[in-house]
Amino acid sequence: MQYHSTRGAAPSLGFRDVTLTGLASDGGLYVPTAWPSFSAADIASLRGLSYVETAVRVMLPFVTPDLSEDELRQLCTQAYGRFAHAAVTPLVQIDQQHWLLELFHGPTLAFKDVALQLLGLLFEKFLAGTNQHLTIVGATSGDTGSAAIDAVAGRIGVDIFMLHPRGRVSDVQRRQMTTVLAPNVHNIAIEGSFDDAQALVKAMFNDADFSGRFQLSAVNSINWARLMAQVVYYFYAAVRLGAPDRAVAFSVPTGNFGDVFAGYVAARMGLPIAKLVVATNVNDILHRALSAGDYSAGTVTPTAAPSMDIQVSSNFERLLFDLAGGSVADQMRGFESTRAMQLTNMQREGAAKLFTSDAIDADGMNEAMRWACAEAGQVIDPHTAIGLAAAQRAGLAADVPVVTLATAHPAKFRDAVERATGVRPQVPGRIGDLFERQERYDTLPATFDAITGYIAERAHARP
Ligand SMILES: *Cc1c(COP(=O)(O)O)cnc(C)c1O
Q1: Nearest-5° Cα angle at 135, 331 to 409
Q2: Domain CATH number, residue 311
Q3: Is residue 130 part of a domain?
Q4: Which amino acids bring their CB within 6 angstroms of ligand 1?
Q5: Contact indicator for 351, 290 with CB cutoff of 8 Å
């Protein structure tokens, strides 16, 4: 499989290089040059397979020829062996129509573990036997950071610098990052928003000199390998609910458009998906883009679902590219200079075939948390609640199963869950002593010079 950039001016690369590179050198994102195609018979043959075997079947076309089937199986076995549930991503039924796909059984209790546990192993695999040293730079609104840090802590050949917006991640989220004391882990609290952090990371990648000197790599969902790993659970869940004979809808609490883009990829590969519900909180740029063609960034409003407090959704570029059928360099450059753009008619019509969207406010979110409790005894987190509220409001036909992606364990957002439901979720035993552990992080202003100076002092430059 070869990958090309959404902006048309970077070299095509294979899977190994795309994984190690992250962002393309022209500022675009890598996407496969063709979508693998699964026939109904191929999908039917996934019935009854374990999560790991499903993962091998779904991902093999994307990693060939850089990994063999056995190598991929070994990596998946190791990555998903660390999950606390034998099904890795179990389905839970709420009522006749609605299901939750629990994606939070990994080591840091967030769905991002599903992709990042694999990505950490891919880095190690591809760096082994080379003298390369990767510097991973990431921005996190909470969950990416802890999942990425867990995935690479102590790994040889990799340093990680993780930027989070100071005071805007939950205490559990912050501690999950800052209590990892491995010497290759560097946490930076920036005096700014998540979008500021993300813009700084983008600027570092766009600085060819800095990026080349330290061999920067990404763990944000701009990294293709992450999205690829997320495609798996759409197949896994849909097959269990009747695919390929029955189409299934998914509702996805969305920030950077990574998780829901993985659903789009599954559909492009042939999985019968009735609808993808793009669920945002009041930071609703994606809802405005999909419902009115208006992709314009406002200011970020902090909410109880902080991992979705985003006004610029990096991965949306991948969808725009696929729907346009070619480079979106001009469109994206326009957006980058004015922070606003319109979707073309072709993009709007293409998106409308599969996507619907909704923006859920605090009342809608709290109501969904209470409904899940009352209806099925399920305590869900604020992000999941936004997905569930949008799923209920999407007006889907009664015979279509609707799967809401449960993206975080409720214990990560205990205060918000308790306020809405009166139930205080227990922190699972595997992260039980989090509040006794020592923290380590530095606070820096949100400026390019401050951050690059800090990294240059600590990272490994190319020999
Ligand atoms: C990251 C995250 C999201 C948003 O996922 P994207 O891939 O950025 O759209 C939603 N919920 C939780 C809990 C997250 O951590």
Answers
A1: 80
A2: 3.40.50.1100
A3: no
A4: 110, 112, 143, 221, 253-259, 307-308, 383, 407-408
A5: yes
- Regarding pTM above 0.90, the answer is yes
Report how many domains make up the chain.
1
The conformation of residue 10, written as its DSSP 8-state character, comes to S
List Cβ neighbours of 354 (8 Å cut-off, separation of 6 or more).
Answer: 264, 267, 273, 275, 276
* Mutation to probe ligand 1, out of 29, 101, 111 (largest number of atoms < 8 A from CB): 111
> C-alpha angle 270/241/398, rounded to 5°?
100
Please tell me the distance between residue 253's alpha carbon and the centre of ligand 1 in angstroms.
Answer: 7
Is there a domain that residue 143 lies in?
no
| DSSP 8-state class, residue 408 | B
Is residue 127 situated within a structural domain? no
Q: Residue 271: inside a domain, yes or no?
A: yes
CB count, 10 Å around CB of 48? 9
* Catalytic site includes residue 112: yes
How far is the CA of 214 from the CAs of 120, 133, 137, 155, 217, in angstroms? 18, 8, 10, 17, 9
pLDDT digits (tens, 9 = 90+) for 144-198: 899 999 999 988 889 999 999 999 888 888 999 999 999 999 999 999 998 899 8
Supply the range of the domain harboring residue 312.
Answer: 86-110+224-421
